[in-house]
Amino acid sequence: MRSFKNIAQLIRTKRVNHPKNYSQSDLSLMLGYKNGQFISNVERGLCNVPLKMMKKISDVLEIDPTEIKTAILKDHEETLTNFFNKSVMKKSVSENVERI
Fold it and tell me: DSSP per residue over 17-78, as a string?
């Protein structure tokens, strides 16, 4: 399962603590989306921000690009760990089933 929790937490924290206190709808509209559902989904870790939007989010929320990069890399690392752990679990289960 893909992980988006680190980028989600970063965006939510920066949005809520921003001096302009943007709502999810405000931020979504600034990014060209029609409603706040996009940012809601991002902040709940259901989806990632498209790369083409990263620069704009960085500018609007005044996030250092290094912070975004770090969050995305952590998410990728967790995604890969989840994938490989799941693969190892499946292999282990099938080996045990074969023994029976």
Answer: HSTT---HHHHHHHTT-SSTHHHHHHHTTSSPPPHHHHHHHHHHTT--HHHHHHHHHHHHHH
- The letter for the amino acid at 43 is E
Task: List, run by run, the mean pLDDT of 10-residue segments along the chain (100 residues).
Answer: 94 97 94 89 94 94 97 96 78 53
What is the model's pTM?
0.82
DSSP letter at 11 equals H
CATH number of this structure's domain 5-99, picked from the four choices 1.10.10.10, 1.10.260.40, 1.10.3720.10, 3.40.50.261: 1.10.260.40
Chain centroid to Cα 66, Å, comes to: 15
Give every CB contact of residue 4 below 8 A, 6+ residues apart in sequence: 42, 45, 46, 47, 48, 75
- Cβ atoms of 75 and 7 within 8 Å: the answer is yes
